[in-house]
Design goal:
The chain has a domain at 30-146. The protein contains seven helices and two strands. The protein has helices spanning 40-43, 50-67, 71-76, 80-87, 94-106, 110-116, 124-133; strands spanning 2-3, 9-10. The chain has a two-stranded antiparallel ribbon with strand order 1-2. It is mainly alpha-helical and 169 residues long. 39% of the residues lie in helices and 2% in strands. Helix 2 (50-67) packs antiparallel against helix 7.
Length: 169
């Protein structure tokens, strides 16, 4: 986190462990990531659109930052041991778990409930973002939709990228 000239902070989250540059419209079947940030379509084995999966992951990070670490697991009623078993090869039905996660976030009001389940920050702006990114893949918003310009990310006076709109980060 770096202070900007205005006194605000610019946050960048980076993980290059399994980085790739996806072509427009390209899908993947690579099993990557860990719950809670793994999108349901990755959990079920794909194929999936990597940029959509990344948007899901960013939404879960926002939920965990604002709602409290463990908000995702508590809201969806997943024990962390289940998540661990997936990567130890002891949990065979990722598709059923993905369906459970999808059903939870398709129920109206559950985005706000997930944010509130551990007594974290209550914000209509954050709930709005969660409602748009914790969605079925075909209905999921992209992070570009929160920058105000789908062609080029918004930039501040120093040329640094900004996320504006529903939530200012």
């Amino acid at each position: 986190m770096q202070p900007e000239a205005t006194g605000s902070h610019s946050v960048r989250l980076v993980d290059f462990r399994i980085a790739m540059k996806g072509k427009e419209g390209a899908t993947s079947e690579a099993m990557c990531g860990y719950l809670p940030c793994m999108s349901p379509e990755v959990l079920s084995g794909g194929p999936y659109f990597p940029t959509h999966a990344d948007c899901w992951s960013a939404g879960v990070v926002l939920l965990e930052m604002a709602g409290g670490k463990g908000s995702f697991f508590r809201a969806v009623q997943i024990h962390e041991e289940e998540a661990t078993r997936i990567f130890q090869g002891e949990f065979a039905d990722g598709e059923a778990l993905a369906d459970r996660i999808h059903r939870y976030y398709q129920t109206p009001g559950n985005h706000a409930a997930a944010l509130a389940c551990m007594g974290g920050i209550q914000s209509d702006d954050i709930v709005n973002v969660l409602e748009h990114v914790l969605q079925l893949e075909e209905n999921r918003a992209t992070m570009d939709q929160f920058t105000g310009d789908e062609e080029t990310p918004a930039q501040d006076e120093t040329g640094q990228g900004l996320v504006e709109g529903a939530v200012s980060m």
